[in-house]
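User: My collaborator and I are trying to settle a disagreement about how two of our proteins should look. Neither of us wants to argue from intuition anymore, so we agreed to look at predicted structures for both before our next call. Could you fold the first one, then the second, and keep them clearly separated?

Assistant: That sounds like a sensible way to settle it. I'll keep them separate. The first protein:
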Amino acid sequence: MTIYNKLIRDRIPEIIQESEGECVVEVLTEQDYLIELQRKSQEELNEYLAASNSNEAIEELADLLEVIYGLTKCHGFSIEDLETVRRYKADKRGVFDKKLFLVEVRKKE
């Protein structure tokens, strides 16, 4: 028996039952779900940072995006709301396409 104590994707119990046997799951409260999504975001970010190639990286980025979608819904917003805010910020402040790295800012005289 292996103990995990972590948030999992919805189909994981079904997949476990088809291949390995039985599993025990609990349905989280909204508050605990938010906490576990936050933990999961750190886990997925760490896995992305540890990726050794682009194929692993894209897998972990997809996992991160799924967690971000869950967090968005947890905070009472839709994916469309998230995209609206993302576009607004992109229009207002830009994106990261130019690969700019801020070194310092000097005060105007």
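The second protein, kept apart from the first:
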Amino acid sequence: MSLTVGNRNDVTELLPLIEKIPPVRGRRGRPRQRPDELFADRAYDHDKYRKAVRGKGIRPRIARRGQPHGSGLGIYRWVIERTIAWYHGMKRLRIRWERRDDMHEAFLSLATCIITYRHVVRLC
């Protein structure tokens, strides 16, 4: 997770966010350091970012501008949008009132714990 100011473009955090990805667990042996694919919406549609992501050994699945939907990104994206809606269900996180970053991240972590708890209770 990366916390930035509200009026900053998301694309500026793409490569630092990829660098923060922990090793991917899987089969025995040396763990993979990167995921196989990166799904992104049209905001990241630029050859510069595609080349940078490929340079990291990740296959970019970035939607193209001006093309109709159908790339399959909606299948994965609704999970993210739903989770963001759950965060907005916590009144304190709808609008950021805290001036300190660590306090806001603490409330995000607490909300994540609450959301996970509710999900586990519903499944069990």
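Some points you might bring to the call about the second protein. The longest helix spans residues 101-123. DSSP finds five helices and two strands in the chain.
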